[in-house]
Amino acid sequence: MAADDKKKKKMSVAEILAACRKLDSGDKSAAKEQAEAPQKAESAPATQQPPPAPAAEEKTAQTPKPTPGKRPSVQEILAMARAEKQKKAAAGGEKPAAPTAEKPAVKKPAVKPKPKPESAPATAEKPHSSNILAGQQLPKKRGPVPKSVLEAARRPARPKEQAAAPAAKAKPQVPPRPTKPPTARPKAKADQQRRGFLAVLGMMVATPLGIGFSSLATTMGLWTLGTLRFMFPNVRIEPPSKFKVGFPADYPPGYVEVKYKTQYAIWIVNAEYNGQQQISALSTVCTHLGCTPNWLEAEQKFKCPCHGSGFYINGINFEGPAPRPLERYAIRIAEDGQLEVDKSRKFQEEKGQWEDPDSFVPA
Ligand code: FES
Fold first, then answer.
1. Distance 320 CA to ligand 1 centre (A)
2. pLDDT tens digits along 80-106
3. What's the gap in Å between 70 CA and the centre of ligand 1?
4. How far, in Å, from the CA of 258 to the mean position of ligand 1?
5. Residue 145 pLDDT > 90
6. I need a surface site. Which of 40, 84, 179, 221 has the fewest CB within 10 A?
7. 315 exposed, middle or buried (CB, 10 Å; 0-12, 13-18, 19+)?
8. SS3 of residue 338 by DSSP
């Protein structure tokens, strides 16, 4: 059997085709012979054909003959090819090969599918990252792609890297860092800063160079302040020229109000002048050299402490070096009934200005 199989396998395709062609040509010739056979028998009945050799009959009996008009099957073709080969071998002195019987169909044992590893299946069909990168790096130009790039893109992922990928994803648990004990660094830093400040202060005060620079800096600062003061004008802030001093009923005859002496430099007096009781505002400036006299209630006069000039209650001078009476300011009754003094206007008695009704208010 094994020898037959080997012989079967030794026939090439060319030999099989050649046998088929030969078989076709033999069939045609056989059909012609069958068609011509009765005619020949009729024409020459006396002639007898020689009987065929028994060995050849046996051989033809073993080989399956194809039915005329039908295309032979593969088995028939193979059988005829073998018979042809045996004929050749017999003609050449070789032993004919024994006809081969068909092999019984041997059932192959069912192969169990191997269980696939658990980690591999998910990633076996997935392309490797390097392959993806290689695919991305493919040239965008039209034309033939290099074979090495295509092979790199189609290359399956390496099992080692696939197995290592899930292990790399799991992050190792890092133990917490031990807390450092508190150190005395801030205190040392503060001490260092204090020492640096004291060193700079010592250099500024103790050394001649430091003294010189300190003096120069002080002088420059004072000059700067003086320059800034020079930028602002000298302005004397005075009280308003017009102000109210109360109602006329507050000033009875022979009364002198001294409370406005310090603030407004005036006295409000109710005194008789030229046979008329008048309320007037007298200046507190001595007509001698400008000193400020004092009201003496007991003596009913104004007395200058500088040179002894004296003035009556109505402001007329009567002793001392004062050459003229005290001056008056304008006074009037305002809309609300109060006395209003206007220091912007002065009235002098020696000029006859006390006759002006604006210089007094009749009491
Ligand atoms: Fe008043 Fe000389 S200033 S008496």
1. 8
2. 888 888 888 888 654 544 444 455 555
3. 172
4. 19
5. no
6. 179
7. buried
8. coil
Per-residue pLDDT at 219 exceeds 50 = yes
Q: pLDDT by residue (tens digit) across 167-207?
A: 556 777 888 887 777 666 678 888 888 898 888 888 777 78
> Which stretches of the chain are DSSP H helices?
2-10, 13-43, 54-62, 74-92, 119-124, 129-136, 147-154, 159-169, 185-206, 208-230, 261-264
What number of CA atoms fall less than 13 Å from residue 298's CA on the CB side?
0
Which of 283, 285, 286 maximizes ligand 1 atoms within 8 Å of its Cβ, making it the mutation to test the pocket?
Answer: 286
Mean predicted confidence (pLDDT) in 108-115: 58
Running DSSP on this structure, what letter comes out for residue 239? -
Tell me if residue 361 falls in helix, strand or coil.
Answer: strand
For residue 346, report the distance from its CA to the centre of ligand 1, in Å: 20
In testing the pocket of ligand 1, which one of 309, 311, 317, 327 has its CB within 8 Å of the most ligand atoms? 309
Q: Position 191: which residue type? A: D
Q: Which is more confidently placed, 237 or 346?
A: 346
Which residue owns the Cα nearest ligand 1 atom 3? 289
